[in-house]
Amino acid sequence: MASTAIPQQPPKFVLDEFIALALSNTPAELHPYFESFRTLYTKKLWHQLTLKLFEFFDQPSAKPYRVDTFERFVRDFEGKINQLRLVEMGVKVSKDIDNPQTHITFLTSLLSRIDTKKSPEAHVLLLATIAHAKLVFGDLEGTKTDMDAAWEVLDTLEGVDGGVNAAYYGVAADYYKAKAEYAPYYRHSLLYLACVDPEKDMSTEERLVRAHDLAISAFLADTIYNFGELLMHPILDAFNRTPHEWIKKLLFTFNEGNIGKFEALAPLFPQEVSDHVLDDERRFIPIT
Protein backbone atom coordinates (compact mmCIF):
# COMPACT_ATOMS: atom_id res chain seq x y z
CA MET A 1 0.00 0.00 0.00
CA ALA A 2 2.93 2.36 0.66
CA SER A 3 4.43 2.11 -2.83
CA THR A 4 4.96 5.41 -4.65
CA ALA A 5 4.98 3.96 -8.16
CA ILE A 6 2.60 5.87 -10.40
CA PRO A 7 0.40 3.57 -12.49
CA GLN A 8 -0.09 4.81 -16.06
CA GLN A 9 -3.63 3.49 -16.15
CA PRO A 10 -5.14 2.40 -12.82
CA PRO A 11 -6.90 -0.97 -12.75
CA LYS A 12 -10.67 -1.12 -12.48
CA PHE A 13 -11.56 0.19 -9.06
CA VAL A 14 -13.34 -2.08 -6.61
CA LEU A 15 -14.21 -0.24 -3.40
CA ASP A 16 -14.35 -3.23 -1.07
CA GLU A 17 -11.00 -4.53 -2.30
CA PHE A 18 -9.35 -1.15 -1.80
CA ILE A 19 -10.77 -0.74 1.71
CA ALA A 20 -9.87 -4.31 2.72
CA LEU A 21 -6.28 -3.85 1.54
CA ALA A 22 -6.03 -0.49 3.28
CA LEU A 23 -7.30 -1.89 6.57
CA SER A 24 -4.79 -4.73 6.43
CA ASN A 25 -1.79 -2.52 5.59
CA THR A 26 -2.28 0.66 7.59
CA PRO A 27 -2.06 1.48 11.32
CA ALA A 28 -5.25 1.03 13.34
CA GLU A 29 -5.43 4.77 14.00
CA LEU A 30 -6.12 5.33 10.29
CA HIS A 31 -8.85 2.71 9.96
CA PRO A 32 -11.73 5.08 10.84
CA TYR A 33 -10.77 7.21 7.84
CA PHE A 34 -11.07 4.31 5.43
CA GLU A 35 -14.41 3.32 6.92
CA SER A 36 -15.56 6.90 6.37
CA PHE A 37 -14.25 6.78 2.82
CA ARG A 38 -16.37 3.70 2.18
CA THR A 39 -19.54 5.32 3.54
CA LEU A 40 -19.11 8.68 1.81
CA TYR A 41 -18.12 7.10 -1.51
CA THR A 42 -21.11 4.75 -1.43
CA LYS A 43 -23.45 7.66 -0.69
CA LYS A 44 -21.74 9.79 -3.36
CA LEU A 45 -21.16 12.60 -0.90
CA TRP A 46 -18.24 13.98 -2.86
CA HIS A 47 -17.77 17.25 -0.97
CA GLN A 48 -17.75 15.54 2.40
CA LEU A 49 -15.42 12.89 1.03
CA THR A 50 -13.05 15.60 -0.18
CA LEU A 51 -12.95 17.16 3.29
CA LYS A 52 -12.34 13.78 4.91
CA LEU A 53 -9.50 13.05 2.49
CA PHE A 54 -7.77 16.33 3.35
CA GLU A 55 -8.13 15.45 7.01
CA PHE A 56 -6.58 12.04 6.31
CA PHE A 57 -3.71 13.49 4.29
CA ASP A 58 -2.88 15.85 7.16
CA GLN A 59 -2.25 12.93 9.52
CA PRO A 60 1.51 12.30 9.98
CA SER A 61 0.94 8.54 10.09
CA ALA A 62 -0.79 8.69 6.70
CA LYS A 63 2.33 9.93 4.92
CA PRO A 64 3.45 6.51 3.56
CA TYR A 65 -0.04 5.88 2.15
CA ARG A 66 -0.96 9.22 0.63
CA VAL A 67 0.25 8.67 -2.94
CA ASP A 68 -1.31 5.22 -3.13
CA THR A 69 -4.63 6.49 -1.75
CA PHE A 70 -4.67 9.31 -4.26
CA GLU A 71 -3.77 7.14 -7.25
CA ARG A 72 -5.92 4.13 -6.43
CA PHE A 73 -8.89 5.75 -4.70
CA VAL A 74 -9.21 9.45 -5.50
CA ARG A 75 -8.46 8.91 -9.16
CA ASP A 76 -11.63 6.83 -9.50
CA PHE A 77 -13.92 9.78 -8.75
CA GLU A 78 -11.65 12.76 -9.45
CA GLY A 79 -14.00 14.11 -12.10
CA LYS A 80 -16.82 14.39 -9.56
CA ILE A 81 -15.08 16.71 -7.10
CA ASN A 82 -14.02 20.35 -7.23
CA GLN A 83 -11.02 20.39 -9.56
CA LEU A 84 -9.10 23.03 -7.61
CA ARG A 85 -9.47 20.94 -4.45
CA LEU A 86 -8.37 17.90 -6.46
CA VAL A 87 -5.20 19.65 -7.58
CA GLU A 88 -4.51 20.93 -4.06
CA MET A 89 -4.79 17.34 -2.92
CA GLY A 90 -2.48 16.14 -5.67
CA VAL A 91 0.09 18.83 -4.90
CA LYS A 92 0.06 17.83 -1.23
CA VAL A 93 0.64 14.13 -1.86
CA SER A 94 3.21 14.75 -4.60
CA LYS A 95 5.60 16.03 -1.93
CA ASP A 96 5.98 12.43 -0.77
CA ILE A 97 7.54 11.37 -4.09
CA ASP A 98 11.32 11.61 -3.80
CA ASN A 99 12.30 10.57 -7.31
CA PRO A 100 12.45 13.73 -9.48
CA GLN A 101 11.19 12.13 -12.68
CA THR A 102 8.41 10.23 -10.91
CA HIS A 103 7.42 13.43 -9.11
CA ILE A 104 7.07 15.38 -12.36
CA THR A 105 5.36 12.44 -14.09
CA PHE A 106 2.77 12.35 -11.30
CA LEU A 107 2.04 16.06 -11.67
CA THR A 108 1.98 16.12 -15.47
CA SER A 109 -0.31 13.10 -15.52
CA LEU A 110 -2.74 14.97 -13.29
CA LEU A 111 -2.39 18.08 -15.47
CA SER A 112 -3.42 16.07 -18.54
CA ARG A 113 -6.67 15.19 -16.79
CA ILE A 114 -7.62 18.79 -15.90
CA ASP A 115 -9.85 20.71 -18.31
CA THR A 116 -8.26 24.16 -18.59
CA LYS A 117 -11.42 25.90 -19.78
CA LYS A 118 -13.64 24.43 -17.06
CA SER A 119 -11.07 24.67 -14.25
CA PRO A 120 -8.53 27.41 -15.11
CA GLU A 121 -7.45 27.98 -11.50
CA ALA A 122 -6.70 24.29 -11.04
CA HIS A 123 -4.71 24.36 -14.27
CA VAL A 124 -2.66 27.37 -13.14
CA LEU A 125 -1.95 25.89 -9.71
CA LEU A 126 -0.73 22.66 -11.23
CA LEU A 127 1.42 24.39 -13.86
CA ALA A 128 3.00 26.56 -11.15
CA THR A 129 3.68 23.46 -9.06
CA ILE A 130 5.27 21.67 -12.01
CA ALA A 131 7.36 24.78 -12.71
CA HIS A 132 8.56 24.75 -9.10
CA ALA A 133 9.46 21.05 -9.31
CA LYS A 134 11.49 21.70 -12.45
CA LEU A 135 13.21 24.64 -10.76
CA VAL A 136 14.18 22.47 -7.79
CA PHE A 137 15.62 19.90 -10.19
CA GLY A 138 17.59 22.56 -12.08
CA ASP A 139 15.51 22.84 -15.25
CA LEU A 140 15.35 26.63 -15.59
CA GLU A 141 14.17 26.53 -19.19
CA GLY A 142 11.32 24.16 -18.35
CA THR A 143 10.44 26.31 -15.35
CA LYS A 144 10.13 29.44 -17.48
CA THR A 145 8.02 27.63 -20.09
CA ASP A 146 5.52 26.47 -17.47
CA MET A 147 5.54 29.85 -15.72
CA ASP A 148 4.66 31.58 -18.97
CA ALA A 149 1.89 29.07 -19.70
CA ALA A 150 0.48 29.59 -16.20
CA TRP A 151 0.57 33.38 -16.54
CA GLU A 152 -1.18 33.24 -19.90
CA VAL A 153 -4.21 31.76 -18.13
CA LEU A 154 -3.87 33.59 -14.80
CA ASP A 155 -3.76 36.99 -16.49
CA THR A 156 -7.28 36.44 -17.87
CA LEU A 157 -8.87 35.56 -14.51
CA GLU A 158 -10.53 37.67 -11.82
CA GLY A 159 -11.16 36.86 -8.18
CA VAL A 160 -8.47 34.19 -8.17
CA ASP A 161 -8.01 31.90 -5.16
CA GLY A 162 -5.18 33.18 -2.96
CA GLY A 163 -3.40 29.84 -3.01
CA VAL A 164 -3.30 29.89 -6.81
CA ASN A 165 -1.81 33.39 -6.89
CA ALA A 166 0.68 32.43 -4.19
CA ALA A 167 1.82 29.37 -6.16
CA TYR A 168 2.45 31.42 -9.30
CA TYR A 169 4.13 34.43 -7.69
CA GLY A 170 6.12 32.15 -5.39
CA VAL A 171 7.69 30.13 -8.20
CA ALA A 172 8.20 33.26 -10.30
CA ALA A 173 10.12 34.89 -7.45
CA ASP A 174 12.22 31.76 -6.95
CA TYR A 175 12.96 31.61 -10.67
CA TYR A 176 14.16 35.21 -10.82
CA LYS A 177 16.21 34.65 -7.69
CA ALA A 178 17.93 31.72 -9.40
CA LYS A 179 18.59 33.97 -12.40
CA ALA A 180 19.85 36.82 -10.15
CA GLU A 181 17.35 39.19 -11.78
CA TYR A 182 16.81 41.56 -8.88
CA ALA A 183 13.92 43.76 -9.99
CA PRO A 184 11.62 40.93 -11.18
CA TYR A 185 12.44 39.00 -8.01
CA TYR A 186 11.54 42.02 -5.87
CA ARG A 187 8.19 42.57 -7.60
CA HIS A 188 7.11 38.94 -7.65
CA SER A 189 8.27 38.33 -4.09
CA LEU A 190 6.15 41.21 -2.78
CA LEU A 191 3.19 39.90 -4.78
CA TYR A 192 3.74 36.48 -3.24
CA LEU A 193 3.74 37.95 0.26
CA ALA A 194 0.44 39.69 -0.53
CA CYS A 195 -1.11 36.25 -1.08
CA VAL A 196 0.04 34.57 2.14
CA ASP A 197 0.12 35.14 5.88
CA PRO A 198 3.85 35.10 6.67
CA GLU A 199 3.24 34.40 10.36
CA LYS A 200 1.14 31.32 9.61
CA ASP A 201 2.42 30.14 6.24
CA MET A 202 6.17 30.65 6.64
CA SER A 203 8.68 29.44 9.20
CA THR A 204 10.93 31.86 11.08
CA GLU A 205 13.82 30.92 8.82
CA GLU A 206 11.74 31.35 5.66
CA ARG A 207 10.67 34.83 6.76
CA LEU A 208 14.26 35.83 7.46
CA VAL A 209 15.50 34.53 4.10
CA ARG A 210 12.66 36.28 2.28
CA ALA A 211 13.34 39.58 4.07
CA HIS A 212 17.05 39.30 3.34
CA ASP A 213 16.53 38.54 -0.35
CA LEU A 214 14.03 41.36 -0.75
CA ALA A 215 16.38 43.85 0.88
CA ILE A 216 19.36 42.83 -1.22
CA SER A 217 17.31 42.89 -4.42
CA ALA A 218 16.03 46.36 -3.51
CA PHE A 219 19.62 47.59 -3.18
CA LEU A 220 20.92 45.93 -6.32
CA ALA A 221 18.03 46.30 -8.79
CA ASP A 222 18.57 49.10 -11.28
CA THR A 223 14.87 49.99 -11.64
CA ILE A 224 13.77 50.25 -7.99
CA TYR A 225 13.97 53.81 -6.70
CA ASN A 226 11.70 53.70 -3.67
CA PHE A 227 11.55 51.10 -0.92
CA GLY A 228 8.25 52.33 0.51
CA GLU A 229 6.24 49.16 -0.07
CA LEU A 230 8.95 47.01 1.47
CA LEU A 231 9.52 49.34 4.41
CA MET A 232 5.84 49.08 5.36
CA HIS A 233 5.80 45.29 5.13
CA PRO A 234 5.95 43.30 8.39
CA ILE A 235 8.31 40.80 6.71
CA LEU A 236 11.13 43.13 7.77
CA ASP A 237 10.37 42.30 11.40
CA ALA A 238 12.10 39.00 10.67
CA PHE A 239 15.39 40.92 11.05
CA ASN A 240 14.61 41.97 14.62
CA ARG A 241 17.01 40.58 17.23
CA THR A 242 19.10 38.76 14.62
CA PRO A 243 22.66 39.37 13.35
CA HIS A 244 21.04 40.77 10.19
CA GLU A 245 19.13 43.58 11.91
CA TRP A 246 21.56 46.07 10.36
CA ILE A 247 19.93 45.39 6.96
CA LYS A 248 16.60 46.73 8.21
CA LYS A 249 18.32 49.82 9.61
CA LEU A 250 20.14 50.30 6.33
CA LEU A 251 16.92 50.12 4.32
CA PHE A 252 15.30 52.88 6.35
CA THR A 253 18.46 55.00 6.36
CA PHE A 254 18.92 54.56 2.63
CA ASN A 255 15.32 55.52 1.95
CA GLU A 256 15.73 58.68 4.05
CA GLY A 257 18.75 59.71 1.99
CA ASN A 258 20.67 60.34 5.22
CA ILE A 259 24.27 59.96 4.08
CA GLY A 260 25.65 60.48 7.59
CA LYS A 261 23.69 57.59 8.99
CA PHE A 262 24.54 55.55 5.92
CA GLU A 263 28.28 56.06 6.40
CA ALA A 264 27.96 55.13 10.07
CA LEU A 265 26.41 51.81 9.07
CA ALA A 266 28.91 51.14 6.28
CA PRO A 267 31.36 49.12 8.44
CA LEU A 268 28.57 46.59 9.04
CA PHE A 269 28.12 45.83 5.35
CA PRO A 270 28.94 42.26 4.33
CA GLN A 271 30.81 41.48 1.11
CA GLU A 272 27.56 41.14 -0.89
CA VAL A 273 26.88 44.87 -0.46
CA SER A 274 30.35 46.33 0.01
CA ASP A 275 31.34 45.13 -3.47
CA HIS A 276 29.01 47.81 -4.89
CA VAL A 277 29.33 51.59 -4.97
CA LEU A 278 26.86 54.30 -4.10
CA ASP A 279 25.66 56.21 -7.17
CA ASP A 280 24.13 59.71 -6.82
CA GLU A 281 23.73 58.99 -3.10
CA ARG A 282 20.65 56.86 -3.74
CA ARG A 283 21.48 53.76 -5.79
CA PHE A 284 23.76 50.76 -5.50
CA ILE A 285 25.08 49.85 -8.93
CA PRO A 286 26.42 46.27 -9.20
CA ILE A 287 29.83 45.80 -10.77
CA THR A 288 29.42 44.28 -14.24
From TrEMBL:
Residues 33-251 form the PSD13 N-terminal domain. GO terms for biological process: ubiquitin-dependent protein catabolic process. It comes from the Eukaryota. GO terms for molecular function: structural molecule activity. InterPro entries: PSD13_N, PSMD13. GO terms for cellular component: cytosol; nucleus; proteasome regulatory particle, lid subcomplex. Pfam families: PSD13_N. Keywords: Proteasome. This is PSD13 N-terminal domain-containing protein. It comes from Leucocoprinus birnbaumii.
